[in-house]
Design brief:
Layout (H helix, E strand, L loop, with lengths): L4 E6 L5 H10 L6 E6 L6 H5 L7 E4 L9 H12 L7 E5 L6 H8 L2 H6 L2 E9 L4 H6 L1 H8 L3 E5 L6 H14 L4 E4 L34 E8 L5 H11 L5 E7 L7 E7 L2 E6 L10 E8 L5 H9 L6
Parallel strand pairs: 1-4, 1-5, 2-3, 2-4, 5-6, 6-7
Antiparallel strand pairs: 8-12, 9-10, 9-12, 10-11
């Protein structure tokens, strides 16, 4: 029996991982496999995904719309060979991925026969302005590929702001269903087929467009814990140049416990994580910036001042 695919797309920091996490934590007995593609050598998102009974497959150090095409197809083939196979496969793209290219790959007849693409969800940060939607070609492409647009972080915007964003989304893609997704909650009825025997209709895809490198990822790791006050100062210095940052680290203040760091839209958050794993650096942070804006040397210089002297 074919295994439907749910594709979750969205811009850097939109909240894709939160949506996937909520979905897996409320699977209601469904066997769901998750494929997570992070743009960078350290796949932070895969470590933040929890609750998948069939496990999480990590694809890192590239984008599945271009350099990791072969890895994605091999990964899907491996998932389908599991015993028992998953009932659904969720693919979370990186924030720089153009879903049109991924959809094109999933239309391959061999993949379609065994794992047809059922639904495309685009997660959009509700603080995004109508001007940004209009001016950002990648975000527009992510929206136009979607069947469902999930507005994340709706608690940060008033009713008028949400109404303006919805109007701007409808102007770009009038047939998409737009829903609020507070804490990542998207109604399961919009994501999974009610009739399990129904076969989705193949999608039309345009000609492949030339890839344009826009972002780069720079990773920093340390075998020492970080000092929170020093980290706040360092992030304050780097934030104006960053499109996104995320990481896991131990702190001097709370040794033996991981903290989850997220920076998006100029907003930084810290949340408690799990226990540190053996053989893994005590601090791991991924920085994403426009090409040429930041250097590895600059990040290393700023971040090394955050670590504790042991």
């Amino acid at each position: 029996m074919p295994v439907p695919i749910l594709l979750v797309t969205g811009f850097l920091g939109a909240g894709k991982t939160t949506v996937v996490n909520h979905l897996l934590a409320h699977a209601q007995g469904r066997r769901i496999a998750a494929v997570v593609n992070d743009f960078g050598a350290i796949n932070i998102d895969a470590e933040l995904i929890a609750g998948a009974s069939d496990g999480v497959v990590s694809l890192s150090n590239g984008c599945i719309c271009c350099s990791l095409e072969g890895d994605l197809l091999r990964t899907l083939a491996g998932l389908l060979r599991r015993d028992p196979p998953p009932e659904f496969i969720v693919i979370e793209t990186s924030g720089i991925a153009d879903p049109a290219d991924i959809v094109r790959n999933l239309m391959d007849p061999m993949i379609w026969r065994e794992a047809p693409l059922e639904t495309v969800v685009c997660v959009v940060d509700a603080t995004t302005t109508a001007t940004t939607l209009k001016d950002d070609a990648l975000l527009r492409s992510q929206l136009r590929a979607a069947d469902v647009v999930a507005l994340s972080k709706v608690d940060l915007v008033d009713g008028a702001g949400r109404a303006q964003l919805r109007e701007a989304i409808r102007a770009l893609h009038s047939v998409a269903v737009v829903v609020d997704a507070l804490h990542g909650e998207v109604p399961a009825a919009l994501l999974f087929p009610v009739d399990v025997d129904r076969v989705p209709t193949p999608r039309e895809v345009g000609a492949r467009r030339p890839a344009v490198d826009r972002f780069e990822t720079l990773s920093w790791t340390s075998e020492r814990p970080v000092s929170l006050p020093r980290l706040q100062q360092a992030i304050g210095r780097l934030a104006p140049k960053l499109a996104r940052a995320k990481g896991l680290f131990e702190t001097v203040e709370q040794p033996g416990r991981l903290m989850v760091f997220q920076l998006t839209g100029g907003r930084a958050t810290l949340a408690p994580g799990g226990a540190p794993a053996a053989g893994v650096p005590r601090a791991r942070i991924v920085f994403i910036a426009e090409l040429g804006v930041l250097s590895k040397a600059e990040i290393d210089g700023v971040m090394e001042a955050c670590t504790a002297v042991e």
